[in-house]
C-alpha cells in the first residue's frame, strides 16, 4: 500500500482538468469549487447537475473527446471516465510535472483526494489510503456531526481575533497567553447561542490584558 504524504495545496486560479463528465467527475468538481480552482471538464456528455455550474461560469466544459492537448495548461489532472483506455491515454499524455489522479486506478495516481469536511477556514480530511473508503465516509459523517456548521463562524472569529492579538502584542509570553486564551470553551458556546456581544467583550478584555 502506498504511504501518502498528506498536504494541503493552494490551487486557487490554477487549472485543473477533469476528463469525464459523469458521477465521479461531478464529485471531483464539487470538491474543487471551494478551492477556487479553474476547472475544465473534458467530455462529450455532462451530468445534469453540472450544467448550472457551466452556465454560471464556475467551470468550463469542452464538449469533446479527450485529446492530449487538453492537458497543456493543467496543474492537476483527474481521469474520471468509465473507460479504462481513455484514462490510460490521459495518464500517458500527462507531463512529468503534472500531477494526475486516476479514479479507476489508485496505484497509478500521483495523488488521491481524501474525504473532506469544510467549515469555513477549518478543513478536516480523512483518508484510509484506499484501504477502506467506506470507513473514510463513516469518519467523515462523524466529523460533520461533531464539527457542525457553527464552526464556520467560530473559526472565522478566531482568525480575526488572532490577527488583532498579533497586531496588539509583540512576540512573547503575553501574545502566547492571549492566543491560548482564545481556546476558552465559552467562546464556542457563546457562538453557538448567538451571544456575540459576550464573545466580543471577552476579546476586548484579552486585547486590554485583562482576561
TrEMBL record:
Residues 119-146 form the Siroheme synthase central domain. It is an enzyme of class 1 (oxidoreductase). Keywords: NAD, Oxidoreductase, Porphyrin biosynthesis. It holds the Pfam family NAD_binding_7. Its EC number is 1.3.1.76. It comes from the Bacteria. PANTHER family: SIROHEME BIOSYNTHESIS PROTEIN MET8 (PTHR35330:SF1). This is precorrin-2 dehydrogenase. It comes from Lysinibacillus pakistanensis.
Amino acid at each position: 500500500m502506498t504511504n501518502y504524504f498528506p498536504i494541503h495545496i493552494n490551487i486557487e486560479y490554477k487549472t485543473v482538468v477533469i476528463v469525464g463528465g459523469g458521477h465521479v467527475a461531478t464529485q471531483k468538481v464539487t470538491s474543487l469549487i471551494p478551492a477556487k480552482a479553474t476547472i475544465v471538464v473534458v467530455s462529450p456528455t455532462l451530468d445534469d447537475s453540472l450544467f448550472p455550474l457551466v452556465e454560471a461560469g464556475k467551470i468550463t466544459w469542452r464538449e469533446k473527446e479527450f485529446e492530449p492537448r487538453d492537458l497543456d495548461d493543467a496543474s492537476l489532472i483527474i481521469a474520471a471516465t468509465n473507460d479504462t483506455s481513455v484514462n490510460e491515454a490521459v495518464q500517458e499524455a500527462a507531463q512529468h510535472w503534472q500531477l494526475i489522479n486516476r479514479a479507476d486506478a489508485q496505484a497509478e495516481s500521483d495523488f488521491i483526494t481524501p474525504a473532506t469536511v469544510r467549515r469555513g477556514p477549518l478543513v478536516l480530511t480523512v483518508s484510509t489510503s484506499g484501504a477502506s473508503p467506506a470507513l473514510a465516509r463513516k469518519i467523515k459523517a462523524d466529523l460533520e456531526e461533531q464539527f457542525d456548521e457553527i464552526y464556520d463562524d467560530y473559526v472565522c472569529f478566531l482568525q480575526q481575533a488572532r490577527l488583532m492579538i498579533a497586531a496588539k502584542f509583540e512576540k512573547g509570553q503575553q501574545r502566547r497567553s492571549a492566543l491560548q486564551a482564545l481556546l476558552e470553551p465559552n467562546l464556542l458556546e457563546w457562538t453557538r447561542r448567538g451571544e456575540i456581544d459576550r464573545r466580543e467583550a471577552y476579546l476586548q478584555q484579552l486585547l486590554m490584558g485583562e482576561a
